[in-house]
Amino acid sequence: MINGYRRNSKAAGIRNKLLVLYTVNCSAFIAQSIGRKLRQAGLDVDVAGNESCYDNQSMVDQLLRLSIHPNVGAVLVVGHGCEFIQADKIAEFAKHHGREAEMIYGQQLGTREGIENGVKLGYELAGKLKKVQKEVVSLNGMAIGLSISACDETVFSCLPLLEAVLTSLMSQGAAILLADHYLCGLHLDEAEKNSPDAAELKMKVERCFTPHLSGFFKEKKTAVEAYLMKYLAGCVKLAQIPQGPGIWFSDALQDYGVMKGPLNGGVAGELMQYAGNGAVLNLMLTGRGTPVSSVVTPTLIMTGNRNTKERMREDVDWFIDPSQETTAQILDLIARTMSGALTCPEKNGQDHALLFQNAQNRRSCDGCMEK
Asked: Are 137 and 12 a contacting pair, CB within 8 Å?
């Protein structure tokens, strides 16, 4: 059973955050200052935004998506005043989708008054969030991101148990998100033939990633390929959300032009990429340890490496012993986390917010902004 926050979209949220969202790097200082003061007052506040001045549709889509993320109950949009992306349009969009929303412009108020007004509005929005009651919600329609980091031999020994956990989550209606680079070195055969999006993404991955990254799952390649072929549901681009249960590859690669290597800034960017795809929770399986999380979406960190668990006991939520059947215990931990129990990264204040512009054509099946 999960106690969460029902939104007017299909997916419920597991947190009820106030998001301070800035439209351009010129307003980042005001936004960060507002967020810092509100957090010092004990409020659950995250800050994210656009670091560029120029217009980019994928960035607009990501800001809009974050403003109505299932874990966000209210948004304070901090604009500057002369940038392309318009703060008032984002606030209107959020209100239209059932969120509490306010906005300010730095050029109209200046730095100090902008921070003071923003903090005041933040308190007002937080007061409204306190009136939102938790309800019993289901996994149906929720998205969960999966990241595998700092790999060693213990990661691959944990994969069978991880697959059992994912299978249970998908059977309850959850969508599992995997970043594009996990496709490196895999051959999904029939699944690729049945999914043009997957075949297209595979071509981009092979074009953009260097050969030494190929074969991420090489030690369990056959088993992983069989599992993915069984559960592959499709692909989503930046700010798009999965349209049903199954495994969905998250595509952050540009569609045209020349680009080599990943764009998303490593593990922190990967987790943020999932947040933009609507993930309410991120699961991380790490070998040597990666104490990272993102804004909006909490990260639950697991490891099968005893040394990592000992060295980073305040960063790791769960130790996986591959010799023990602990699927039920891990699912119980996930349920408790989704009902409000804080993850280690949340307790440590991990709140990375890496957003990147890109050039992507929208798929006709998008549905992003209708939900």
From this structure: yes
3-state helix, strand, coil in the chain (%, to 5): 40, 20, 40
Q: List, in sequence order, the alpha helices (H) in 277-342.
A: 306-311, 327-338
Task: Give the residue-averaged pLDDT of 291-300.
Answer: 97
Strand ranges in 106-255 using DSSP code E only, listed in sequence order: 135-137, 143-149, 175-179, 232-237, 246-251
**Does residue 13 sit in helix, strand or coil?**
strand
Amino acid at 261: G
**Vertex 66: Cα angle to 64 and 67 (nearest 5):** 65
SS3 371: coil
Residue 202, beta-bridge partner list: none
Report yes or no: 134 and 5 within 8 Å, Cβ to Cβ: yes
Q: What are 137-180's pLDDT values in tens digits?
A: 999 999 999 999 999 999 999 999 999 999 999 999 999 999 99
Residue that is written with structure tokens 């050039």 in the block: 359
Provide CB contacts within 8 A for 147, sequence distance 6+. 179, 267, 270, 271, 274, 282, 283, 284, 285, 299
How far is Cα 234 from Cα 217, in angstroms, rounded to an integer?
20
Cα–Cα distances (Å) from 248 to 140, 173, 357, in that order, read 15, 13, 21
- Mean pLDDT calculated for residue range 109-114: 98
The closest of 90, 58, 71, 60 to 250, measured between CA atoms, is 58
Domain extents in the chain: 17-131, 138-348
List Cβ neighbours of 251 (8 Å cut-off, separation of 6 or more).
Answer: 180, 201, 204, 235, 236, 237, 238, 360
DSSP 277: T
- Give the single-character DSSP code of 5: B
> Quick check: 106 and 27 in contact, CB under 8 A?
yes
Statement: 17-131 belongs to CATH 3.10.20.30: no
Identify the weakest region by mean pLDDT among 143-147, 262-266, 268-272, 281-285. 262-266
The alpha carbon dihedral of 366, 277, 6, 124 has a sign of: negative
Q: Is 122 helix (H, G, I), strand (E, B) or coil?
A: helix
Find where tokens 């998205």 sit: 143
